[in-house]
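Exercise 7. Given the components listed, write out the predicted structure of the assembled complex. Treat all entries as one system.
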Amino acid sequence: MTLEKFANWEGTVDELKGLVSERALTGETMMLNMGPQHPSTHGVLRVLLELEGEEVVNCIPDIGYLHTGIEKNMEYKTYEKSIVMTDRMDYLNPMGNNLVYCLAMEKLFELDVPPRAQIARVILTELTRINSHLVWLGIGGLDLGVTSTMTYCFREREILLDIFELVSGQRMMSTYFRPGGLWRDLPDEFEAAVRHVLDTFPAKFDDYENIFVGHPVFIDRTQGIGFISAEDAIAYGLTGPMLRASGINWDIRKAEPYSSYDQFEFDVPTGQHGDVYDRYMVRFEEMRQSLRIIEQGLNMLPDGPFRSDNRKYVPPPRSELGRSMEAVIHHFKLWTEGFRPPKGEVYVSTESPRGELGCYLVSDGSPNPWRVHFRTPTFTNLSALAKLSKGYMIADVVAIIGSIDIVLGDVDR
Amino acid sequence: MKDPQLVLPEAFGDAIEGIETFRGQLTIYVAASHIVEVARFCRDTDGLRYVFLSEVMAADYYPSVPRFGISYQLYSMLYNRRLRLKVMWSEGDPDVPSVTELWPAANWHEREVYDMFGIPFDGHPDLRRLLMPPDWEGHPLRKDYPLGYETVQFSFNVDEINKHKPYARKNGDER
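Answer.
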């Protein structure tokens, strides 16, 4: 199919000239459309591939199919009401998204978070990290011919989702973190449920690693594929496991500790080769490190308040409403008008399962944020897809997309 | 380790338009015409080494003038600190020079800013809309762009909805 024919149904031939080689215009190389409805694109990603035989000459990702205008919508809601929208960006990392938005707000308001809430936040975000990596592992295995892990990983993920339901009442869209702490205290059953995870998961992780590492098809399809050097990884803005697989030891939890991560001991796994295989191994090890963090968190979880009592920003608990007129006034004010933070701009970044998740918050002093922007990790990681896949076979593109661990809700927002 | 608050005004003089610290975060306002030189200086100078570009984002400060602010989040892995460069821009000003030659990472970020705010970048290799469809009219994150909604298409109202689409106006009610 020549480009002219290809473009007839899309109407974008002028835009594509200059992106593809001259040979595509004469039909010498083939243009192939992959997605947006393709199982290996992990959502709705469209990739235009220019192929010479089976070799990828050029690759043009096309995103925006899941663009929901979350940033625009948040400008029309009060600060606290827009927390629900952050869950829906990266739907595999809802707690992490809540966390970065709450941290940005807390930085802007100079709001303190009690220690119990900080440790609980760490435990829950690490559980979310395991949850996210399990989905990535199951679906990534499906791409690469390791089909059995899909059901195993989703079985384990179910246990984690039950814990999220236990604490927040919601399996996936938890909206559990609030400015100043948590929505409500951790339930009594929480510790036992998490201990069960700590006891059973390490053996499961070993099993999965054996399935992958002992699988010749997996090894053939990942080693030496999708290489990127450390210098290029930095220039292309890669973060998270993508960057660490190239040998750079940079983890925001270590470099700029937030939410009491400085009290925890854990290792940051890195790779050496910067290929798909190393990205898999880095994530495997990250899951084990997350268990370490969770165990320490459970052991040090202090008693005490779970939310700040700064009534300028935090509504009073239900129990006070029947007794105190002041509490009723605060309640009414905070749930109708919202609060008025100081003017200013802050940028806060956290380490999500996929990389640097940042929130840029601009306040003009009104109850609605003037501008919220999320620096999402897969957005930047995906922009390097052309760099990663040039020169490899078309089947490798599937492996490379899987190793980026894209979540299209995170890319498009 | 050098202090960018001292080094940058020394090296660029009037091109540094202001320095601001809020909540411990440093923002340096740079003239739009000089952003590439300043960014390259920040990246390559010993003692600064802001080698990592986290993001490029914009905000619409309507009705104040200049209207748009474009922020570049830089990070120095060596010294573990951040710096925000900020460029103010209004419609009618010359295009903002693109930093894609320094960081390929800026490619999609600048495309997103162009898509959402209509801020053109000079020297960008591929300045197209990124998230919105290519035939979209307007720039959604501008403050004068209403929130709006898309009517849900059913079989009974598909003709009526098609009439309001940009392509219908262009081709005279047929597609």
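Discussion: The two ends of chain A are 33 Å apart (CA to CA). Chain A touches chain B at residues 11-12, 15, 18-19, 63-64, 67, 69, 71-73, 76, 107-108, 110, 234-237, 248, 250, 255-256, 344-347, 349, 356, 358, 360, 362, 370-371, 373, 375, 379-380, 382-384, 387, 412 (CB under 8 Å).
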